[in-house]
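Handout for the seminar on molecular recognition.
Each group receives one record of this type.
Step one: identify the two inputs.
Step two: read the structure output and locate the region that could contact D-mannonic acid.
Step three: write two sentences on what you found, then compare them with the reference statements printed after the record.
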Amino acid sequence: MTLPRLNAATVPARSLLHRRAVPETGIVHLGLGNFHRAHQAVYTAAALDHADGPWGILGVASRTATVADALRAQDFRYCVVEIAPEGSRVLVPAVHTGALVAAHRPEAVVDAIAAPGTRIVSLTVTEHGYTFSPRTGHLDLDHEDVRADLRGDGPPRTVIGQIARGLQRRLRRNATPVTVLSCDNLAGNGTQTARLVREFAGALPATEGDELAGWLDDAVAFPNTMVDRIVPATTDAYRTAVADHLGVRDEIPVPAEPFTMWVLEDRFTAGRPAWEDGGALFTDDVEPYELLKLRLLNGTHSLIAYLGALDGRAIIPDAIARPFVADAARRVLHDEYLPSLTVPDGIDLDAYVAQLFDRWGNSALGHRTQQVGSDGSVKLRQRVPEPALGHLRAGRVPHHLALTVAAYLCCMAPPTGFDAGPHAAAMADPARSELRETARRTTSVRDFVAAVIDSGLLGDRLAGHPAFTERVAELIGVLTRHGTASAAADAAEAADAERLPAA
Ligand code: CS2
């Protein structure tokens, strides 16, 4: 039997997260991927369930039209499939009012940012989407698309270009205040976005740039946020779950774990939805929450993904079910990430950590090691260097942070004769070809690791710590000669030996 397609007429009322009319557009969201649709969209639906407001979302996909086309065909309805081991729930947020593809209609994106009705420009474009130089963290002025956006001889191609050019048009047309809200896993995501937009303005011809920079100070806020929800890629299993639960066909359901968290600074220059109605937490100081999440969750997640992939595990729950992976995860989390943080007031650390292991172990979710391992070159610099430097400066080698980097490099540029397996091979990474090239032109693993670290892949400060380079190289040696579990055992033994009191 062919099921009816999900749309405004066929959506079962019981699954709608709010029953109000779809509001007018007040939010332009860049990055129409699964994360936004299972996170901010759900909080916005919860806010609208309590009160009307101009908080419809115009979603902007960067290149591919699949989601935007399906959204239009479904009257902007789609399902969030919440997956828990004990069963799943299907919910429909219904908060989108339009969908665009930036690569097809770049001018429309600039116009939408400039529109007076737009109060918030939010973004989930992944670490990779911010076009910062991996070495310096500053706007990458050598990037071809950044240069084209600065020349302005065509519509902007980069996200920072779209925001800066959209704000410039807004300033000229109506000069109404607006908030730019980064929802990506970057430390100080609002501060970093503001800096990159200012760097863009600073690289424009002087009068143009000064005018924009002055207005940014007066009328544009960039609050910091911490976002958290594990959201895997969509597969047919989730389309089937929607068909089974709701009796309709949704081409673009979003799977998500039940857990969700959002912590934001309350600095919005043109109003905001009452996201607290969906459980969001507003605070003056997001940083401790961001660092807690970026390091304990995301940092440990990277290690689980790389060890798991090298051990032949397709999904995170199967990786963490391996005792040696769970042991390495506990060690990196407790001994190497935790000392670099201040736990925010009100967080029960033991409960938070226990919950992380439950979340990673959610076997019904099928979160792929390949997904978490992808884009390591832009993710790891947010996760590894700061905590590693803290240990190195105190004279300790962080063996499990070194193991994270070693396992990442084995996935990206497997040494000759070493087979990293299909899950590592499937990881996408903008630096993969450069890493392979570096491996090809160096003559030893030690030289390869030194060249990678000197290239600034993990920022520019680890290069001054040869002990870290040495340890990464040793662990790559053990991993490729004796296997992933042996490398984890080597890291654990070295960490234990250093913990023993001196004789
Ligand atoms: C993951 C995150 O892919 C990754 O790097 O660590 O996407 C993680 O699942 C989310 O940040 C959870 O909030």
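Reference statements: DSSP finds 22 helices and twelve strands in the chain. The mean pLDDT is 96.
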